[in-house]
């Protein structure tokens, strides 16, 4: 299986292990992300896994699905659309539906040509990029679940996929805001969960970001404000990037205010 597909599957299984024991009442508790409940998080992940899978196996059906999304998205009613799409499926039944589907979906991506182009909301992307994006979404939205439950997450080195996505979207962070990406991109020296050091960009002590890889991932996915991490940031380009990093598609989004996204009880 393509490594990114296996990493997606493993990340989904880790989140499933966290939510599977929860009662229906616990699944309906709110997270710190836009008042989404844990149910909303799992439903969102399931729907967009379904959409990504359609883009792989049936481009015409993906387009039919996406036409349903355009209106609610433009009106700021995406959560209402997703709840309507799911119908009566919620709570424990939703968790199992999501699990059953991601277990079917991952092998399909794992067996596909990694370079094949598939459709998405914006430009087309490679199969490898598509499943990496699903991994990133699962990890990022999973964080609000860990936070709401007061569980300190234990990461694995598969988060390197998200680090790479963060690096590759350095320019995007600025372009989506109508700005010219400042050069050079800062040098990264990030410590992986395994203790390995991952380095990206030209070596520099003037533009430099150092620290834990998982905290870099939290910043570029906007699950933490840079002020709530221990990342060491040197240089104006590095500071500007970390103040508004955005590795996901869509309009520009501000990071959460300092102190608002954290593990419950801390």
Protein model, in words:
With 266 residues, the chain is an alpha+beta fold. The chain has 2 domains: 3-154, dinb family like domain (Four Helix Bundle (Hemerythrin (Met), subunit A)), CATH 1.20.120.450; 160-244, Nonspecific Lipid-transfer Protein, Chain A (2-Layer Sandwich), CATH 3.30.1050. 53% of the residues lie in helices and 8% in strands. A 4-stranded mixed sheet has the order 4-3-5-6. Helix 8 (160-168) packs across helix 10 (213-220). The longest helix has 23 residues, at 127-149. It starts with a helix and ends in a 22-residue tail after the last helix.
Helix content class: 40-55%
Strand element count: 6
Strand order of the largest sheet: 4-3-5-6
CATH class categorisation of the largest domain: Mainly Alpha
Q: pLDDT average, as an integer?
A: 96
Give a quick account of the main beta sheet: strands, pairing sense, barrel closure.
4 strands, mixed
Oligomer: single chain
What is the first-to-last residue Cα distance? 39 Å
Number of H- or I-type helical stretches: 11
CATH architectural group of the largest domain? Up-down Bundle
Structural class: alpha+beta
Task: Give the uncertain stretches in residue-range form.
Answer: none
CATH level-four homologous superfamily name of the largest domain: dinb family like domain
CATH topology of the largest domain: Four Helix Bundle (Hemerythrin (Met), subunit A)
In short:
This protein is an alpha+beta fold and 266 residues long.
What attributes does this structure have?
8% strand, Nonspecific Lipid-transfer Protein, Chain A, two-stranded antiparallel ribbon, 53% helix, 6 strands, Four Helix Bundle (Hemerythrin (Met), subunit A), alpha+beta
